Amino acid sequence: MSLLLQMTGPVMDLTYHLRALPASGTEAEVTGFAMAPGGGFNAMAAARAAGMAVRLGGTLGSGPFAGIVAARLADLGIAPARPPRAGLDQGCCTVLLEPDGERSFIAFPGAEGHVAAEDLSAIDLAGVSHVLLSGYTLHYPQARAAVAEWVARLPREVVLVFDPAPVVARLAEEVLRPVMARADWISANAAEAAVLTGEPDPEEAARALAAGRVGAVLRQGAMGCLLASGGTLRAVAPHRVIPVDTNGAGDCHIGSFIAELARSGDAARAARYANVAAALSITQAGPATAPAREQVLPLL
After folding, report:
1. Cα distance between the two ends of the chain
2. Among 21, 36, 43, 180, which Cα is nearest to 102's?
3. pTM
4. What are the backbone angles phi and psi of residue 27, rounded to the nearest 5°?
């Protein structure tokens, strides 16, 4: 059985539904509020919804936010790979959600931003088939060096999927280089891919991302995604929906892609599955709204 180890820790999302983003010095008109686990939680929830076993390798803290995250992980059958970190709660992310579903973030890390070499040495890789790592973890000063070194030493039979995340332009070269060298798959949006490759054209960026590795997925939102693998490039059609909340859609795509790839071994099918799952996820409010496998299969 395949098992995904998520190396990016969860945060608590504080989501404000706005009429519009406020101008500097003014107050926004808020129409709704919700608090739920997000960050590294989203891709785990998506992989579980698609039927894959998942374990948390990122840091879980202790405190009110960490308690809520731990309860939700338990609900999904996701166990932590190491003990919680005492004295630090999870970080939080303020999500400003506009009426068209677009979102803006203001975040500060907590326990998930702290990963030491001794923490990683405690992780048992027995049974782990896939590891997922986000650029956010490589951005945290108290985590990046240890995680980059750990990733570089992963057994070759473990598939590493790297999500560069919106912070990719701020990642230090010394931590990005070994992760890029080890990554079997990269899943990035067009802006992230352009930063990594220097190619503004999405098709050229997807080809460049895939060079020297198994493949790459370039996510294009409502346009679907590009799949580059084995020297070929394929545009994978989107599933059309009316968006309600796009928060977590990229994470849903990544977690769904990994789960279906692990199950079928067919990257094109996995990309199509991920497109449908991510589309369905944005028809509901909340950061971790991945559809169950039974909802996705009829739409493939």
Report:
1. 23
2. 21
3. 0.94
4. -115, 135
Structure-block tokens of residue 253: 């795509």
Place of tokens 């129409």: 31
Task: For the sheet with 215-219, list strands across it.
Answer: 79-80, 53-56, 3-6, 130-134, 159-163, 185-189, 215-219, 225-229, 232-236
Per the structure block, which two tokens stand in for 77? Answer: 């059958």
DSSP helix/strand/coil, 116: coil
Six-digit token string for 13 = 């999302």
- Distance CA(47)–CA(24), nearest Å, equals 39
Residue type, 143: A
Question: Would you call 275 helix, strand, or coil by DSSP?
Answer: helix
Query: In whole angstroms, what is the distance from residue 140 CA to residue 85 CA?
Result: 16
Give the position of tokens 């990963």.
115
Order of strands across the sheet that contains 92-97: 30-39, 10-18, 92-97, 103-108
Decide: 131 and 159 in contact? Cβ < 8 Å. Answer: yes
Q: Which residues of 228-237 are buried (b: 16+ CB within 10 A; e: fewer)?
A: bbeeebebbe
Residue-wise pLDDT tens digits, 260-296: 999 999 999 999 999 999 999 999 887 788 999 999 9
Contact (CB, 8 A) for 38 and 62: no
| Per-residue model confidence as pLDDT tens digits over 61-96 | 999 999 999 999 999 999 999 999 999 999 999 989
Considering only CA atoms, which of 93, 91, 84 is closest in space to residue 61? 84
Amino acid 42 reads: N
Measured distance CA(230)–CA(246) in Å, rounded: 31
What is the distance between the alpha carbons of residues 94 and 268, in angstroms, rounded to a whole number? Answer: 35
41: nearest Cα among 74, 84, 8, 2: 8
Cβ-contact 178, 162 below 8 angstroms: no
219/196 Cα distance (integer angstroms): 14
Task: Quote the CA–CA distance of 278 and 94 in Å, as a whole number.
Answer: 21
Using only the alpha carbons of the chain, give its radius of gyration: 18
